[in-house]
Amino acid sequence: MEDNNQNFIDPNYVDPSLLAQYDEPEPDYTQAPPPKMGGTPKAPSYQLQTSGDGTKLDNIFEYAINMDASDIHLLSGCQPLVRVSKELVPIDTMDELTPEDMDEFIKQITGNKERLIDLLDEQRLLDVNYKYNTTRFRVNISFSMDVPTITMRLIKDQLPPYDSLNLPPIIKEYAVKSQGLILVTGKPGSGKSTTLSSLVNEINENENKKILMLENPIEYVHTNKRSVIVQKEISPYGDCRSFHEGVVNSLREDCDVLVIGEIRDKVTMDAAIEMAETGHLVLGTIHTNSCSETIDRIINFYPTEDQQTIKFMLANALRLIVSQRMLRGGYGNLVIIPEILVVEVQVGVMSKKDKFNRVEVEDAMQSGREKGNYALVFSLADAVLAGKITLEQAAREVDFKRQELLTRIVAAGRQRKYY
After folding, report:
1. Coil/strand/helix, residue 171
2. What is the pLDDT of residues 68-94, one digit of tens each?
3. What is the edge-to-edge ordering of all strands in the sheet holding 228-233?
């Protein structure tokens, strides 16, 4: 019987022979100081001190804050979990949660407000904000086997300065331009919201603009500096019921910059492109893993008969795509790995073809660094050469075809200290 798997190539497979060619001792993470990139999470050594005055959920909040966690996961039948530097860590001093615990958590998070409880019962989903002391949380409540599950993202009090994110300067250069569409993409937890809010803060500090932000829910709360910022929460009981509705109404609000927390569908993309074409700067996010996938996703929002039209519209309105990945560095800190596509004439021509070819766009990015493009393979090589991640980590992020290119770039960089 023929083996159907004999020609299968695992895209995450790392050829050890490639790595061995350029083997070099990895940095001594126990001696070298960590790079200044978002801080170093605390080691999982905080001992939870329960208080008779606080609820069980309050104790979980305290633990997460002291651990510098990014997320909290609460599921019935499991100990509470926090995510520290991409790793899930159980709170060992707490018992497994019960369905009754989950119900109590929901009452506390919603303030036992009837309208929110009814909305959760009706939609079986709920996104809200919650504030514990001075720390804010973005909360998602859903169900598993008819029992609630809760996921919470900690929102930092202080927005990191854009320059501390170690992102290429071209992103900031495009963000202060007067018009066009800029997209920041990546998986959940890749730092999209932080990058977007840091760009808004740059405009706020340096430009005299009216900035309208549509978010679900609101994360960083901005204060007016040189610009005026209006933040609207998207939810059935929020400031606006949908992103599409908020974008359409923004045309009547005389804003200079529109920020869309998430572009999920055709109607929101239509409105975003219209805003960009009428002289506004539009910043938005999409959950995609690469720049080329982002263009492909947008095109496929539309039926086949409309795809040629949207390709022309994108070529005219889209200015820049920033795709981010977040990797765990050798010091336990998190490292942003950006991929950047400047949508100029060459890419515009490619996108207008009858059949969009993602490989052509990726190849154009690799050969167009002088134009501001920043291919993933080069971004990974930079992080390896800076000692932020290992070559093996980097190789897992690219397909088999680009692993050899990655190792050659790193080898050249190690020999010359530049490339």
Report:
1. helix
2. 999 999 999 999 999 998 889 999 999
3. 228-233, 210-215, 257-260, 281-286, 180-186, 318-328, 334-342
Name the pTM for this structure: 0.80
Beta bridge partners of 325: 337
Q: Predicted confidence band at 10 (pLDDT cuts at 50, 70, 90)? A: very low
Give first-to-last CA distance, the chain, whole Å. 50
Contact 162, 201 (CB under 8 A): yes
What pairs with residue 150 in β-bridges? 74, 141
Instruction: Please answer whether residues 286 and 263 qualify as being in contact, where contact means their C-beta atoms are separated by less than 8 angstroms.
Output: yes
H/E element holding 65? helix 56-66
User: Mean pLDDT throughout 93-117?
Assistant: 94
The CA distance from 2 to 9, in Å, is 17
- The bridge status of strand 210-215 relative to strand 180-186 is unpaired
As a whole number of angstroms, the distance between CA 147 and CA 259 comes to 35
d(CA 375, CA 367): 9
Instruction: Dig out the tokens for 170 from the structure.
Output: 């071209």
Strand partners, 128: 139
Residue 352 pLDDT: 62
Peptide bond into 217 cis (omega under 30): yes
Looking only at the bridges linking them, the beta strands covering 147-155 and 228-233 are unpaired
CB 268 within 8 A of CB 260: yes
pLDDT > 90: what percent of the chain? 55
List 273's β-bridge partners, or say none.
Answer: none
Helix (H, G, I), strand (E, B), or coil: what is residue 8?
A: coil
Summarize the chain as % helix, strand, coil (round to 5): 40, 20, 40
Q: What is the pLDDT of residues 128-175, one digit of tens each?
A: 889 999 899 999 999 999 999 999 999 877 788 888 888 999 999 998
φ and ψ at residue 308, rounded to 5 degrees = -65, -35
Which residue segments constitute the domains of the chain, with CATH numbers given? Answer: 56-155 (3.30.450.90), 162-389 (3.40.50.300)
The tokens of 272 are what?
């975003």
Per-residue pLDDT tens digits for 201-210: 999 999 999 9
